[in-house]
């Protein structure tokens, strides 16, 4: 048989498969490091070091070489292209994503069609193929979380300030308006985003309040599609090897299950798969691609499931990481808001937190008042001080004479367990808050 004849000359096929696997694996690793390497959890790990190597040390070295050789002409050209790709809202990466998925499906489905059952062809495949396109479109087209002049009053009262990560009266340096709690200005979308998680170049949009559930659906659908492609491709290739080594006519009527790989070493097993992949390039290449990229998609999904469980966003994980570093450096203090609000009236203006009617234009909300599902209010005011110095207050020590003394109401935060994430409502509450948009 052709497959058996090729097994005798399998070294070239094996090398080709190894090369493809290494290339896909390296690309997946670089993407993972580029996207996640800056997170605080990886800051002092090899992944964090690799992130700095790829995005700081190597580029700086190349810039110095270009300055010496061409006077930075190459650097300026690359910088313009980089700024367009990374700092402007454009569909280039999203188009590449769509083309990669569509191309893989065009290669795989016709070649795999003879090996699929009717239920897979008419039910499973249409759902798995169409869902990523649908959820991608919903992620891209949803812009309700972009804060505009119309939506700003409601956005300002959507979440209460926690006085830990978010404080009232902190203006956006671009929009020049007080930033709503849990919002962040996106330099690519050119606006503040409600409950901003991150800007995703794959969907050409920010992941925020009103499309986060679509984004999770996209990750689930992509993971299912890749998992299905990897499992189905592997099954088809395995059946081809089974037929080549142990044809069905040889075991017809047999009461024992004979498997082609029984007794083979790992090297022989890989050799056999290398040959069958090389002989069925369309199925083999897409199967390899699915096998190598499915863990990346699942990694994204698991990470965002963790964020839902923690009542946090990607943007807030960075803020919590910075706060943790400051706690370790003894720079953080806290005091009960009820005890200090009389002496610190400016930053603790209650109209923003407790009187949403002051900011909310009911006519623009059609009589519906946005309400945070948690119902909790901030109890502690958490601050950082320069070099960890204790907060002070001016106190009258004699009639008409004041001295600056340490404010004893503030206590140093020595452990992150002393700081509460008031946006964490428990798994059920977090799921409802992020995935079930029952209020606007």
The tally of strands reads: 9
Strand order of the largest sheet: 6-5-9
Structural class: mainly alpha
**Morphology:** elongated
Query: How much strand content do the residues show?
Result: 5-15%
Main β-sheet, in a few words?
Answer: 3 strands, antiparallel
Helix content: 40-55%
Distance between the termini: 65 Å
Mean pLDDT level? 81
Radius of gyration in whole Å, from Cα? 29 Å
The arrangement of helices and strands along the chain is: HHHHHHHEEEEHHHHHEHHEEEEH
Tally of separate helices: 15
- Which consecutive residue ranges, at least 5 long each, have pLDDT under 50? 347-370
> How many discrete structural domains?
3
Question: Care to describe what's here?
Answer:
- The structure is a single chain.
- This protein has 440 residues and is mainly alpha-helical.
- It folds into three domains: 1-21 and 89-145 and 195-312, no CATH class; 37-88, no CATH class; 331-425, no CATH class.
- It is built from 15 helices and nine strands.
- The chain has helices at residues 2-7, 11-36, 46-70, 73-87, 92-112, 118-141, 152-156, 212-245, 248-251, 266-279, 281-310, 314-328, 337-340, 350-354, 426-435; strands at 184-186, 191-193, 198-200, 205-207, 332-336, 380-384, 392-398, 401-406, 411-412.
- The strands form four sheets. The chain has a three-stranded antiparallel β-sheet with strand order 6-5-9. Strands 1-2 form a two-stranded antiparallel ribbon. A two-stranded antiparallel ribbon has the order 3-4.
- Strand 1 and strand 2 form a beta hairpin.
- Helix 2 packs parallel to helix 11 (281-310).
- The N and C termini lie far apart (65 Å).
């Amino acid at each position: 048989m052709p497959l058996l004849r090729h097994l005798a000359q399998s070294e070239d096929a094996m090398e080709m498969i190894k090369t493809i696997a290494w290339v896909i694996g390296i690309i997946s690793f670089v993407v993972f490091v580029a996207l996640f390497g800056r997170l605080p959890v990886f800051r002092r790990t090899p992944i964090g070091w690799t992130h700095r190597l790829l995005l700081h040390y190597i580029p700086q070295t190349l810039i110095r070489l270009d300055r010496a050789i061409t006077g930075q002409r190459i650097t300026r050209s690359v910088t313009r292209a980089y700024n367009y790709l990374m700092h402007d809202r454009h569909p280039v990466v999203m188009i590449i994503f769509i083309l990669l998925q569509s191309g893989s499906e065009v290669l795989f489905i016709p070649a795999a069609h003879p090996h699929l059952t009717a239920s897979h062809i008419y039910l499973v495949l249409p759902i798995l193929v169409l869902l990523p396109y649908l959820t991608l479109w919903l992620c891209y087209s949803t812009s309700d979380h972009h804060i505009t002049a119309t939506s700003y009053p409601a956005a300002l009262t959507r979440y209460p300030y926690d006085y830990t990560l978010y404080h009232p009266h902190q203006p956006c340096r671009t929009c020049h308006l007080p930033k709503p709690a849990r919002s962040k200005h996106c330099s690519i979308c050119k606006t503040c985003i409600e409950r901003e998680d991150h800007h995703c170049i794959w969907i050409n949009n920010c992941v925020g309040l009103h499309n986060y559930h679509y984004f999770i659906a996209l990750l689930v659908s992509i993971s299912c599609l890749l998992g299905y492609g990897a499992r189905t491709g592997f099954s088809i290739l395995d059946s081809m090897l089974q037929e080549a080594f142990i044809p069905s006519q040889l075991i017809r009527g047999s009461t024992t299950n004979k498997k082609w790989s029984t007794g083979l070493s790992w090297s022989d097993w890989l050799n056999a798969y290398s040959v069958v992949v090389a002989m069925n390039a369309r199925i083999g290449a897409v199967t390899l691609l699915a096998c190598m990229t499915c863990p990346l998609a699942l990694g994204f999904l698991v990470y965002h499931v963790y964020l839902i469980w923690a009542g946090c966003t990607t943007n807030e994980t960075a803020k919590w990481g910075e706060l943790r570093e400051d706690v370790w450096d003894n720079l953080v203090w806290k005091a009960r808001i009820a005890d200090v609000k009389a002496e610190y009236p400016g930053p603790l203006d209650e109209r923003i937190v407790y009187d949403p009617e002051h900011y909310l234009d009911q006519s623009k909300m059609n009589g519906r008042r946005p309400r945070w599902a948690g119902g909790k209010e901030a109890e502690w005011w958490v601050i950082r001080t320069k070099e960890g110095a204790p907060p002070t207050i001016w106190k009258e020590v004699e009639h008409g004479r004041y001295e600056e003394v340490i404010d004893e109401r503030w206590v140093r935060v020595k452990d992150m367990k002393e700081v509460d994430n008031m946006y964490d409502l428990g798994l059920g509450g977090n799921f409802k808050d992020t995935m079930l948009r029952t209020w606007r």
